[in-house]
């Protein structure tokens, strides 16, 4: 910028003075030459001709006197003619002089008039005395000539005076020429000195003009840069566009060789290069430590910093830059908007050009404008992102509400995030046995879908690896992996092959969010990006909102599936009850008729009464099961009376209860129990009911001649019961349904076991039979059987 303390005369008066001196230096010699030339022209055209005419007049006077004398001596008329000729010459010459004398001055004009009078007086006297017409005696002529000599003398004196006047006039003109030349020489010398001074002034003015021009160009660049940034404030809609405009404008504004914009993350101790422009710049995305960096220094003090020598040992990006530019100078300026630190603007120049302290104010103004532009662009992007997210959630709600089928909903949830949120998405669910299953996956590239499905099938989450989905489900807290490193992939992978498969997906960033309804977390969603974008805290919040919608949709689908199973169970119950009650009712009716209409022996009557009792017991059991199912469908627990019980006796009694039924189908029923087992905390009647339902189910689906085995054994601080059959087994697609408790007896068994704090599950292979397991908690060592307590 132009310095305000510059003397005004250096710019305006100096320029005028230089112009005046140079003008005089050219004009004075020209004027002097013109003046001298004019004087010489006057001498040549007026003085010299007048001198010649005066000489001619004197000669003509002399010749006229000679002609008069010749005429008087000889009487020849040719002398008279010569006299008249000379007189004519004098008259003509006098006329010519009359035309010249106005240019020669008033004195010359007076002398010319005196000359004319003298010459006229001489000629009149000669002619009046007929001295050229009559020849006089010699003595008389001489006397007359002598008497008239004063006329001739006067004419000669007048001619001499005129010539003298001409000589004086000519001398004056020559002196004027000499004076002009002397004055011109003096003035030229003075002007030469002034010209030297002017040259110095010109040199200074040229330098000043260069500086002024450079300042004006720099100011124009600054104004252009400021207009560019101001334009960004009103036009640019994306942060990338603003960053590009800022770096471009900064190069123009401060004449920098390269420009960097660093984003800071003090929490993660990172400085990330988000924009760069110039030659040999550090790659965008490069990270460095925040602690000890110049960015940390300027943001802490809110003051710009000039670094005269940037070496390879400098902190943050400047150290990396020094590897390419050698020794550079830089300005590091804080980017702060609305009291919030955004990062730092780094301007770099290669030596020998350095940044000066007087450049700091305009660089800071530029940085402030850039910070405002960045904040505005970030705000616009955030608003646009929120609008897109709202629209996405609105559309997602419609999509999720389009179906209540459970498996279809799982696939819809996985596909929902593609590609708006992620390139890869997985749905993880907790099964009834506590295991976590990856229920659905989706990928933006249909060619990779088979690949990710293979990973899902081969590598289900494991409890021993408390990472990712397993940990999120356990804690109920979302996890953000802004940048996935190879070490993270190794910690997630279950083996080397799994690690290689994950690397082939080229995942860059990931989020894992819980699927929860109320206080229950029943699964998790994993979002992963293969592109350059990195997930941040805002993305995690949005992913949690998506997961909340998805959780409600999955829960609704699950409840819908359960309601369908409940309706099916109800129908099955009605069918079973109507079928099973028909037999004991028929038995009771028929037996009662026999008792009423027949006279039977006492032993036969007792048998008949036993049939009625067994049928009533059977009916009572069916009614209890029906009540239990009704309670389950109403969401009410089955009443339990829990106390310490012997699991061995429960197994033995259950086997005895179905022994006749097994024998009728030629099914080998065996129990494998150790000699001693820990007591269990259980409702004996309900656990007996569970075993009886499982045994009835096993006998129902086991062909004649098969086998059913009941086991009981310690298992992880619990007691595990199992019922294995050699029936046709369960198809894989129906294992989950059987596991969740489809059917009359299994639904009751599942509820009773879970109310005891245990769990129930099934393992089955089509054609090889099924094995149902359930566990019960062990009783404390201080607890004893009820019978033992009563005996004591």
Topology readout:
Elements: H1 8-11, H2 13-74, H3 77-104, H4 106-128, H5 138-147, H6 149-234, H7 239-254, E1 258-265, E2 270-278, E3 287-289, H8 294-301, E4 305-310, H9 316-325, E5 328-337, E6 340-350, H10 360-400, H11 406-416, E7 424-430, E8 436-443, H12 446-458, H13 468-475, E9 479-481, H14 486-492, H15 496-504, E10 509-517, E11 520-529, H16 537-597, H17 602-633, E12 643-645, H18 647-657, H19 659-664, E13 668-672, E14 680-682, H20 684-701, E15 707-715, E16 718-725, H21 732-740, H22 744-755, E17 760-765, E18 769-777, H23 786-791
Parallel strand pairs: 13-15
Antiparallel strand pairs: 1-2, 1-6, 2-3, 4-5, 5-6, 7-8, 7-11, 9-10, 10-11, 12-14, 15-16, 16-18, 17-18
Overview in brief:
With 792 residues, the protein is an alpha+beta fold.
Describe it for me?
The chain has 4 domains: 1-168, Four Helix Bundle (Hemerythrin (Met), subunit A); 236-384, Beta-Lactamase; 389-564, GAF domain (Beta-Lactamase, 2-Layer Sandwich), CATH 3.30.450; 640-777, Histidine kinase-like ATPase, C-terminal domain (Heat Shock Protein 90), CATH 3.30.565.10. Residues 1-10, 736-743 and 788-792 have low confidence and may be disordered. It is rod-shaped, with a radius of gyration of 66 Å. A hairpin with a 2-residue loop joins strand 10 and strand 11 (520-529). It starts with 7 loop residues before the first helix and ends with a helix. The protein is of the alpha+beta class and 792 residues long. The chain is 62% helix and 16% strand. The chain has a 6-stranded antiparallel β-sheet, sandwiched between helices. The protein has a 5-stranded antiparallel β-sheet with strand order 8-7-11-10-9, with helices on both faces. The protein has a 5-stranded mixed β-sheet with strand order 13-15-16-18-17.
